[in-house]
Design brief:
The structure holds 4 protein chains of 4 kinds.
Chain A lengths: L3 E5 L2 E5 L5 H7 L23 E4 L4 E3 L10 E3 L3 H17 L14 H8 L16 E2 L5 E4 L8 H9 L5 E4 L6 E4 L15 H5 L5 E3 L12 E6 L8 E7 L2 E7 L12 H4 L14 E4 L2 E4 L2 H14 L4 E4 L5 H14 L5 E3 L5 H6 L6 H4 L3 E5 L3 H4 L1 H12 L3 E5 L12 E3 L6 H5 L6 E5 L5 H8 L4 E4 L6 H6 L11 E7 L5 H6 L5 E6 L4 H5 L2 E4 L8 E4 L5 E4 L12 H12 L1
Parallel strand pairs in A: 1-5, 16-17, 16-23, 18-19, 18-21, 19-20, 21-22, 23-24, 24-25
Antiparallel strand pairs in A: 1-2, 3-4, 3-5, 6-7, 7-10, 8-9, 11-12, 12-13, 14-15, 14-25, 26-27
Chain C lengths: L3 E7 L5 H7 L4 H7 L2 E3 L15 E7 L2 E3 H13 E7 H6 L11 H11 L17 E6 L9 E3 L6 H12 L15
Parallel strand pairs in C: 1-2, 1-3, 3-5, 5-7
Antiparallel strand pairs in C: 4-6
Chain D lengths: L2 E5 L8 E8 L5 E9 L4 H4 L8 H4 L8 H15 L6 H33 L10 H7 L1 H22 L8 E2 L2 E2 L5 H31 L1 H6 L6 E7 L3 E2 L5 E5 L5 E5 L8 E4 L8 E4 L9 E2 L2 H7 L6 H13 L10 H22 L18 E8 L2 E9 L5 E7 L1 H4 L1 H15 L7 H13 L16 E6 L5 E7 L2
Parallel strand pairs in D: 6-12
Antiparallel strand pairs in D: 1-2, 1-16, 2-3, 4-5, 6-7, 6-8, 8-9, 10-11, 13-14, 14-15, 16-17
Helix pairs in contact in D: 3-4, 4-5, 4-6, 4-7, 4-11, 5-6, 6-7, 7-11, 9-11, 10-11, 13-14
Chain lengths: ~575, ~550, ~180, ~475
């Protein structure tokens, strides 16, 4: 391609074609201010703050102005600066910007622009009109008084996350951001993915839980991977004083490109379960706190004495902990009696060869096979919606209600699942998203479909565990060790432990499982752990410890290693 | 084809309807049947002449205009004129000119005497709901000629040679526009007729659509052939019920006889047209906003480039032409570019339809070749200022247009001459204001209109307009300092320089021009606390 | 250096800006040594600016009553440079939130409806300032020469502004000196 | 009808305040009014806001004790979300409250009221101010500045900034204390306590020398309201309310949340500030005072040793009865200043203060919540009602100065009658009237001083209110 030569602020520069002036400037380290623009979103040229002056003397928005041959622009000429100041004055005068009690103060892009351009007072009269405040949503505050109508949220909600909840109603000065055409946020089709709040430049869409907990630059930011399902979304966690304040989607992540779901973004902030903080032993019906060393000693002694030592591990722990667990049993305890807290159909696991989440976005047809990703794998649901919006067909096989039914081209009862084969006969690029716990009969049908298969494993490291040969509970055991992470232990698990006479549980939280345990050892949560997870696509990603574990609480891996040391 | 002895054009624009046009129609029909004239007198619904009184009836032949203020006058009118052939003087429209002009002469002689009707050639003459009448007036001849004897390239070069320019306001050469789309590689391509005539006071497109809908369809088909499109949309302003009805009737009739659809006139050219109804947003007259709206999105303008020629509707190459522009096409094809170039002046070929309104004696839609001066338009065709008052200001080109002060009355109205005085003719609206008008009151109304129509996308327009209105309200409530006029100018300049689309820029222009030509009037208001025109109430 | 006389007042405000002025701590002494004479201010003040006027007038607070209006106009007359200090003076600040309601609604809540009020009534004595229908910024009443926004402005901003003015320069508040919250 | 003397402005109490003194025909004081001349409507305009913003909105009521509003609001919001903050959070909140009390009390005694006491009521008004104090006792003045600064520094270092900090949040606070900050604050503490003790000895000397003035200067019986902790120990952050009568007998003990059962407010036409009283006795029988005097009268002991010793001295002055003189407020205030500094030390030395267990997870939203704290000037009550989403429906605020409104008027009336002679009007007399207000430290500027002559407007009014003549002395 032909190179373009242009001049920015008098400096001749050479660029590839196809870029905007804003992009070119940025790549040369020239900071052109923007408000409606966001790097992840398509430019719309609405706020006009990024205007630059051309050689011809016109003011053009840099975000939408293509860099063309011979273009000459000034990015901070006196005219540009005056226009920007005036536009800022208009923005400050439009709604009610009371920084002194705004959650976003300090992190607000509008405020920063005011500072940058030295706005020391507002050219217009004081505020007179109150705009609505929608406080109905569990996590997100929608404060119209602070909205600058930049539409970042709308673009994030629609273009990035595929939900199409937010839009504009009315026009001109009466334009209002509105969920589902004037519904309160709570009653709208909002799925609480929070992308809107992440891109909002002001305090208009703010996260309620993190409100007034501090400014972004006072917080520690850690990149990690979400552990709430097997998608493995990249996250950026904000912590302060070892408290989790907010979670953002990591824009750079190849898995989720910055999009999260309610589980990933908000549930960790709302953790109310009671932590296990000290090792506890139950003897003669009494519970006693014991030292960690004593707990290890007691546990290993029991395991050593066992006839048939068994182990079950959580699919939410790291590959490194799984590895250590396998060695503990195979080497130190010479036992093959190990299992996983989840069980999958091995055939379903094998069905998926090299499917990846990106395939959904380019699919012509998507099948949801006995699975509803909305509540469990939100980003997958997001991707499905995006695919459908782009024109893909969606087929759902289910006997229950599916939250994506609205988007479906056709819904089949499970008894008519075989109809899929004919329906998809002529489709190219088919993605089948399935529940990996399906029956073998289902797999017989699916085998006939030419498609990419994506089994939605439940947990962050389910696939990692399966790959290490762990799947399903063990058969029988007298002394069992359960590395539970935050699993509480469902009825099936508890039932399978009936024969266990001595149960050792390594757990994050107090649960029915710890109630059943003879010995409890506290463990660090995934937020306090470093290592790797293998997501449903088979990508192995780094997990970083976001917070410090409470004093004396160790990670699964460290505890298991202490077991091994004790066993020699 | 049925031949009527008398054609009665009944004004059924919204204002006429409010004044009882439908009652008049019912009564007329009743009386005509009573007198047994139903096979002799045809009643046609049309728009009005812009006369701000009564319900207007234009009777052909003769072109006499009656103004009906009372339904009770109908029996007498039918009896006297329709039956006995004696025009009823007391019901005739009188122009309130210094020398009272009685419209007793045929309309061609009085109102049409200086006009040249190319675009409006069929308006008022044919029954717009009957394709046969259009065909009888050489309709679809041009399409037939194009399809049978011309290549698309030839069509484009003919249009280019005619120097036809867009009548929507910008005056972009139509042939060039077509050529860009024809050359764009992407497919499919689209033709859009912009019939979202939202300019207050302007109704020339409506007159065309109501009076000659087939001319639009024929032109679109020609354009489609020229650029390689097979689908067209007419985006009509929602309030134009009658236009929509008549366009739909016309489309249906054209399809029935194979002038639309597949293999038109036996060739392998396929073309179909659909009418789409706008929701009454001024900004949707802007071509990219119109396309957003057609796509089912919020009607807000897009950034340009890319231009519609290469990335228009659904990001496909699109020709978008105004109603009036399109109406020229068949005659250019039939009579040739050279003939067409004989009309108008250098740089502005052909005729232009103007809507003349405001404080002028004869208001309405007029068509003249380019090059008439405003003086001629106002004082000769418009019979001068009402009540013999002096002219204060002409707003040329509609709400978004420019101010023309009396010293520029001799400037000919053509693209170049108008541009030289820093103005534009826009949609061809000519609003005449006499000396008793208050420019601030006028500006306030204009800005209120823009404020209502702003789409809300960009900051300068969305926020600037209400703030400018606030300032103006403070001027008229005597609560402003003179130095705030400088601030108003600053505000207008920012709006003009940074608004996303023409709406905000045009609104800012109105402020700047008001301040440029009439600053003393502002100062007068502020200093004396008194509106010289007594329009602003007690300050 | 010639003496620079300063008068300050507060109108509809919380006094936080004057507290921030005091938060200059020892630097107040420095300013006094540099030629500042505080006349009617909360730290060493007259009740009204001296008859002959002052060089710098400082107003904290918005215009909420007729008395505030009078006082702002009076100080404007008496000073050469008028500084609006703090968000309330600069743009109306938090107190303009009462503009969302009518004056009567606000008074009714305050004096008739509050849960602890018994047999309330709205005070109307002539001795009290009358609430304006809407709270205004100082610039809406009188010309303001310089603004120090913030709620309250940092002591450093006030110090810098005064020091620059003393040196005959027009202060430019940038970086950490310009704050809105 | 006699003359009217207007002292305007007395500068302001959360805005303007002015005093009008009506003289009878003999030139003696007939009656006085203190007009509190500002109303901003926080109770109304906070409606519709999310509850958690109240912690930032309400401090803007007062820039002198913003921390008190911030914390009262935080406590009300704790109640709204149905949680009790963890101990470290409470310690940190109390710590900044102690900083607030140190700075506010120090400023009041040394900068504002001090000149009256140290330089004399009718000393040269041109020097009867902090500058005069600097001239008279530069060493003391510098200590005063440092003491105030220390209080502000506690707030700034713990909560981020001096005025209107964002620190407390519903359920706790938003940051933990670092060892560095703790140590830096502790390093100066002993010096500050010493400065405070110096102030106390000055006050005591002054009291000893001015017993006669104290007796005539706004000394009257009233009830007393304030928070107390276990064993009726002095408490500024938490605890329960104790309301006693003029003899020190307990009228009521109640939980802050139940204040509406015990307190009512009355509106007088001539003031924007309401007049609270003990509900069961009605107005004016049930009037009471708050603030340092009330708290010292209500307290049986203080949990810090030096202040407790001082309280014993205080108690001995009244022979077991509550002290009533308005001027005694100054002494009580300094005892509290000492307590605040000592208490700050106790908190800083508590190992839990460094913990990061600083916020509790919210529970279910409650329909309403009350937060009560002892602001430097007295009991401060915030009461919020929210809807199911957490949007403010109503707010009721009774600010400290409000409780003392009646007492201020009474003190002014007393002082005017005892010290103002309409026939031989002297500036110093009017200064004493203002001094009566200053005892209650109702707000910053009420307690400030004028350099130069007191501006004075004497108006001669006819019975119908028309003005016959006026004499004006501009300062």
């Amino acid at each position: 391609m032909e190179k373009l030569f242009l001049k920015i602020n008098g400096n001749e520069i050479e660029v590839e074609p196809g870029l905007t002036v804003l992009q070119v400037a940025k790549s040369f380290g020239i900071d052109i201010p923007t408000l409606c623009h966001h790097d992840q979103l398509s430019p719309i040229g609405a706020c006009r703050l990024c205007v630059v002056e051309t050689k011809q003397g016109t003011l053009q928005p840099a975000c939408t102005l293509p860099a063309t041959q011979g273009l000459e622009v000034e990015t901070e000429s006196p005219r540009v600066v005056e226009a920007r100041k005036f536009i800022l004055n208009l923005l400050f005068a439009e709604r009610n910007h009371y920084c002194m009690f705004c959650e976003a103060s300090g992190d607000c892009e509008l405020q920063n622009m005011g500072y940058r351009y030295g706005i020391d007072h507002f050219a217009f009269s004081p505020y007179q009109t109150k705009f609505p405040t929608d406080f109905s949503h569990k996590y997100i505050l929608l404060e119209h008084n602070r909205c600058i109508l930049c539409r970042r949220c709308i673009r994030a909600c629609s273009d990035l996350a595929g939900h199409y909840v937010l839009g504009m109603v009315n026009r001109g000065a009466h334009t209002m951001l509105s969920p589902d055409m004037e519904s309160p946020l709570k009653a709208s089709s909002c799925v609480s993915c929070g992308a809107c709040a992440q891109v909002c430049p002001t305090g208009s869409l703010a996260d309620k839980i993190g409100a007034f907990r501090g400014k972004a630059d006072e917080m520690t930011k850690t990149k990690s991977v979400c552990a709430n399902c097997s998608v493995g979304c990249g996250i950026l966690a904000f912590t302060k004083a070892n408290h989790l304040i907010k979670i953002w989607g990591e824009w750079e992540s190849p898995v989720n490109h910055g999009i999260l779901c309610e589980l990933g973004r908000f549930s960790p902030l709302n953790e109310k379960r009671k932590r296990v903080l000290q090792p506890i032993i139950r003897q003669e019906g009494r519970r006693e706190v014991i030292s960690y060393q004593d707990a290890i000693k007691k546990a290993t002694q029991k395991l050593k004495e066992a006839k048939n030592p068994g182990g079950i591990i959580s699919p939410k722990t790291t590959n490194e902990a799984l590895e250590a667990f396998n060695i503990l049993f195979s080497t130190s305890l010479q036992s093959k009696n190990t299992g996983l807290m989840e069980s999958y159909n091995e055939k379903a696991v094998k069905l998926s060869a090299d499917g990846c989440l990106e395939d959904i976005l380019i699919a012509n047809a998507v099948v949801l096979y006995k699975v509803d990703p909305s509540t469990s794998h939100g980003v997958v649901a997001s991707w499905v919606k995006k695919a459908v919006t782009k024109g893909a067909y969606l087929y759902i096989v289910t006997d229950e209600e599916n939250s994506l039914s609205f988007y479906a081209t056709e819904t089949f009862k499970t008894s008519e699942a075989d109809k899929l084969v004919n329906t998809l006969e002529n489709s190219k690029k088919v993605v089948v998203i399935l529940n990996p716990q399906v029956e073998s009969a289902d797999l017989e049908i699916l085998k006939k479909v030419k498609a990419v298969f994506l089994p939605l494993y439940k947990s962050a490291n389910s696939l990692g565990a399966i790959k290490k040969g762990l799947n399903g509970f063990f058969e029988k055991s007298d002394v069992a060790l359960i590395v539970a992470s935050d699993f509480s232990g469902d009825g099936n698990l508890l039932a399978s432990l009936q024969d266990v006479s001595y149960l050792i549980v390594i757990s994050n939280f107090v649960s029915p499982l710890t109630e059943r345990a003879n010995l409890i050892i506290p463990s660090a949560t995934w937020l306090e752990t470093s290592g790797t997870f293998t997501n449903l696509e088979g990508k192995t990603q780094d997990v970083s410890s976001i917070m410090e574990a409470p004093e004396g609480v160790k990670t699964d891996k460290a505890i298991i290693e202490d077991f091994m040391k004790a066993l020699g | 084809m049925k031949i009527y002895r008398l054609h009665v054009l009944l004004s059924t624009d919204s204002r006429s309807i409010l004044r009882g046009a439908l009652e008049v129609e019912t009564k007329l029909k009743e009386e005509i049947i009573k007198k047994g004239l139903e096979n002799e007198v045809q009643i046609l619904r049309t728009g009005g002449w812009g006369i701000e009184e009564g319900v207007q009836l234009t009777v052909y032949p003769g072109g006499l205009i009656y103004v009906i203020n009372n339904v009770e006058d109908i029996p007498y009118l039918v009896e006297e004129h329709f039956l006995k052939g004696r025009p009823v003087k007391k019901l005739m429209y009188e122009i309130d000119a210094p020398a009272k002009v009685e419209m007793t002469a045929p309309i061609e002689e009085e109102i049409m005497k200086k006009q040249t009707r190319i675009i409006l050639r069929n308006v008022g003459l044919i029954n717009p709901e009957d394709i046969k009448e259009y065909i009888a007036h050489d309709g679809y001849q041009a399409l037939a000629q194009v399809l049978s004897t011309m290549t698309p390239e030839q069509v484009i070069s003919e249009i280019k040679a005619s120097e036809l320019s867009g009548r929507g306001g910008a005056g972009f050469p139509t042939g060039f526009k077509w050529e860009l789309t024809a050359k764009a590689p992407a497919k499919p391509k689209y033709i859009i007729c912009n019939a979202d005539e939202g300019e207050p006071g302007t109704f020339k497109d409506r007159v065309i659509m109501e009076g000659d809908p087939h001319s639009i369809i024929e032109s679109m088909a020609i354009a489609a052939y020229a650029v390689g499109a097979n689908k067209g949309f007419i985006y009509v302003r929602g309030e134009y019920d009658l236009s929509i009805d008549r366009l739909n009737i016309a489309i249906k009739q054209s399809k029935e006889i194979g002038l639309l659809g597949n293999n038109i006139l036996g060739t392998n050219f396929d073309f179909d047209v659909e009418v789409r109804i706008g929701a009454g947003s001024y900004v949707c007259g802007e071509e990219t906003a119109l396309m957003e709206s057609l796509e089912g999105k919020r009607g807000e303008p897009r950034s340009k480039p890319p231009y519609p020629s290469t990335e228009g509707l659904w990001a496909k190459p699109t020709v978008i032409n105004n109603v009036e522009t399109l109406a020229n096409i068949p005659l250019i094809i039939l009579k040739g570019a050279e003939w067409y170039k004989g009309l108008g002046v250098e740089g502005s070929r052909g005729t232009k339809v103007f809507t003349l309104f405001g404080d002028v004696n004869a208001k309405g839609v007029i068509e003249v070749p380019f090059g008439f001066t405003l003086k001629e338009l106002i004082y000769e065709i418009g019979y001068g200022i009402k009540g013999g008052k002096n002219l204060k200001l002409v707003q040329l080109g509609g709400s978004s247009g420019s101010f023309i002060t009396p010293e520029h009355l001799d400037v000919p109205i053509d693209w170049n001459s108008v541009r030289k005085i820093g103005a534009g003719q826009g949609s061809g609206a000519i609003l005449v204001l006499d000396e008793t008008r208050c420019v601030i009151d006028f500006l306030k109304n204009l800005l209120a209109f823009f404020n209502h129509e702003s789409c809300g996308k960009c900051v300068p327009c969305r926020v600037g307009l209400p703030k400018a209105l606030d300032l103006l309200n403070r001027v008229t409530s005597g609560n402003v300092e003179i130095d705030e006029l400088g601030f108003m100018e600053e505000l207008a300049n920012v709006m003009k320089n940074t608004s996303f689309c023409g709406l905000g820029q045009a609104a800012a222009n109105q402020i700047l021009e008001s301040l440029k030509y009439f600053k003393s009037e502002f100062i007068n208001h502020i200093e004396t606390g008194y509106c010289p025109a007594n329009k602003c109430g007690r300050l | 250096m010639a003496k620079v006389k300063i008068a300050s007042t507060w109108l509809e405000a919380c006094s936080g800006c004057h507290m921030s002025l005091l938060d200059m701590d020892e630097r107040i002494v420095e300013l006094i040594q540099a030629g500042v004479e505080f006349t009617s201010t909360p730290i060493t003040d007259l009740k009204h600016p001296p008859e002959e006027g002052v060089d710098i007038g400082i107003i904290e607070g918005a215009i909420g009553t007729d008395l505030h209006e009078e006082e702002a106009k009076h100080l404007r007359k008496k000073c050469k440079i008028l500084i609006a200090i703090g968000d309330c003076a600069v743009f109306g600040g938090i107190v303009t939130m009462r503009n969302y309601f009518s004056r009567e609604e606000v008074l009714t809540r305050g004096y008739l409806e509050t849960e602890s009020t018994k047999d309330g009534k709205i005070p109307t004595s002539d001795e009290l300032g009358k609430l304006l229908p809407k709270v205004k910024a100082v610039k809406d009443i009188v010309k303001v020469d310089f603004y120090i926004p913030g709620c309250p402005p940092p002591a450093d901003s006030i110090y810098t502004a005064l020091k620059e003015l003393l040196g005959g320069r027009v202060p430019v508040l940038k970086g950490d000196l310009l704050k809105y919250d | 009808m006699g003359e009217k003397i207007t002292i305007s402005p007395v500068t302001r109490i959360e805005g303007h305040a002015r005093v009008t003194i009506y003289l009878n025909d003999n030139g003696n004081v007939d009656k006085t009014f203190v007009h509190i001349d500002q109303f901003r409507g926080f109770e109304k305009f906070s409606e519709g806001r999310p509850y958690f913003e109240m912690l930032q909105i309400t401090p803007r009521i007062c820039g002198i004790c913003p921390v008190s509003h911030h914390l009262a609001s935080a406590k009300a919001c704790d109640a709204l979300i149905g949680v009790e903050p963890p101990k470290p959070a409470k310690l940190l909140r109390e710590l900044i409250h102690m900083g607030q009390c140190v700075q506010s009390h120090a400023m009041h005694f040394f900068h504002l009221a001090g000149p009256d006491l140290l330089l004399g009521w009718d000393s040269n008004p041109a020097l009867r101010n902090v500058v005069g104090l600097v001239l008279a006792n530069p060493e003391l003045a510098l200590k005063a500045v440092k003491l105030r600064k220390y209080g502000q520094e506690i707030i700034a270092k713990v909560a981020g900034r001096r005025i209107h900090p964002t620190f407390a949040v519903p359920g706790g606070v938003n940051n933990q204390l670092t060892i560095e900050v703790r140590d830096s604050l502790l390093s100066e503490l002993d010096t500050m306590i010493a400065y405070t003790q110096e102030g106390i000895s000055i006050a005591k000397t002054w009291i000893g020398a001015n017993m006669e003035v104290i007796e005539k200067f706004g000394k009257f019986p009233s009830g007393y309201l304030g928070l107390v902790n276990e064993g009726d120990s002095l408490e500024l952050y938490d605890g329960n309310l104790k309301l006693t009568d003029s003899e020190g007998k307990v009228w009521e003990r109640f939980k802050p949340a139940d204040y509406l059962d015990f307190i009512e407010e009355r509106v007088e036409d001539w003031s924007y500030l309401k007049f609270p009283y003990y509900k069961k006795l009605g107005y004016p029988k049930g009037v009471y005072r708050v603030g340092p005097l009330a708290r010292a009268n209500n307290a049986e002991k203080i949990t810090t040793p030096l202040a407790n010793e001082e309280l014993k001295t205080y108690k001995s002055l009244g022979n077991g009865r509550p002290l009533e003189g308005s001027l005694v407020y100054h002494y009580a205030r300094l005892i509290e200043l000492l307590y605040s500094a000592e208490r700050a030390g106790q908190i800083l030395n508590d190992p839990d203060v460094l913990s990061n267990d600083i916020i509790a997870m919210p529970g279910d939203l409650q329909p309403h919540g009350v937060g009560v704290i002892e602001a430097p000037r007295g009991t401060l009550i915030h009461h919020y009602w929210i809807d199911e989403d957490g949007i403010m429906q109503k707010a009721n605020l009774i600010v400290s100065t409000g409780h003392n409104n009646w007492a201020i008027s009474k003190a002014v009336d007393d002082v005017a009658k005892n010290f103002v002679d309409g026939k031989k009007l002297k500036e110093g007399m009017l200064n004493m009237v203002e001094g009566a207000i200053r005892c209650y430290d109702p707000c910053f500027s009420c307690s400030t001083h004028a350099i130069g002559k007191m501006p004075l407007l004497v108006e001669l009014k006819a019975a119908d209110g028309t003005l016959f003549d006026s004499v004006k002395r501009e300062g």
